[in-house]
Amino acid sequence: MMHHLLSEPPAARIVSPEAIFAAAPDDFQCNFFDATEIYDEGLCNHFSISRLYRSNHHEAIRRAGVCAAEGELECILSTEIGLGFPAAFVFDDGAMRAIVAPQLLPHESENATFQVYDPRTQRYTGNYLFDREVKVEFLQNDDRHPTTEVLNGTAAYCVSLLRVAFTPACWAALE
C-alpha cells in the first residue's frame, strides 16, 4: 500500500486510549481527523478487538452514523468517534459498514491524491497519495471471522487513512 503525505500536517499528539470509548454515549462528540492526534497501540490487540468490539458494535455504528451525518461524510474513522482501536466506517448499500482491524495484503493498484477535509473548520487538513484499491483482511461488522476483500473508492481511501490515524506499533501488534 502506498500512502504518502503530500503536504505537511501540524505536529501530532499521541493518544493512548484507556477504554474502548473515550466518552460515554451521551457525552461523545465527533473529533474529525486532521492528523493532529494519532492513536497508539494501547488497544491494538486481538483480544480487545474480538471481545470489546463485538459487544460495542451497535454503539460504534450509531456514533459513526451521527458523525457521518454531522460532517456529511462517507468515511468515518474509529478515532473520530473516540473508539480506541482501528476501524473504518463506510456506507454500503445505504447502511454503515464497519471494517475492523484491516490488515493490508499484497495488491497492485494505481494511486490517486486524496484530500482530508475537516467539516468543523471547513478546511482541508492534508493531501495524501493512496492506492485506488486495497486488498484487506478484516473483521466485518460484529463478525468474529475475518474476511478478505478488495476495496476501492471511498472504502479503500478510508482504510488507507485509518492506517495513518494509528501508530505503526498498533499495526505491528495486529499483523
Please provide a written account of the structure.
The chain is α+β, with helices and mostly antiparallel strands. It has one domain (3-7, 35-174): Peptide Deformylase, CATH 3.90.45. The chain is built from 3 helices and 10 strands; from the N terminus they run E-E-E-H-E-E-E-E-E-E-E-H-H. It has a 5-stranded antiparallel β-sheet with strand order 4-5-6-9-10, with helices on both faces. A 3-stranded antiparallel β-sheet has the order 1-8-7, with helices on one face. It has a two-stranded parallel ribbon with strand order 2-3. The mean pLDDT is 88.
Total number of distinct structural domains: 1
State mean pLDDT (0 to 100 scale).
88
Instruction: Indicate the CATH class.
Output: Alpha Beta
- Helical stretch tally: 3
How many runs of DSSP E, i.e. beta strands? 10
Distance between the termini: 14 Å
What is the CATH third-level topology name?
Peptide Deformylase
Which outline best applies?
globular
**Strand count, sense and closure of the main sheet?**
5 strands, antiparallel
Relative helix content: 25-40%
Assigned CATH superfamily: Peptide deformylase
Return Rg in Å.
15 Å
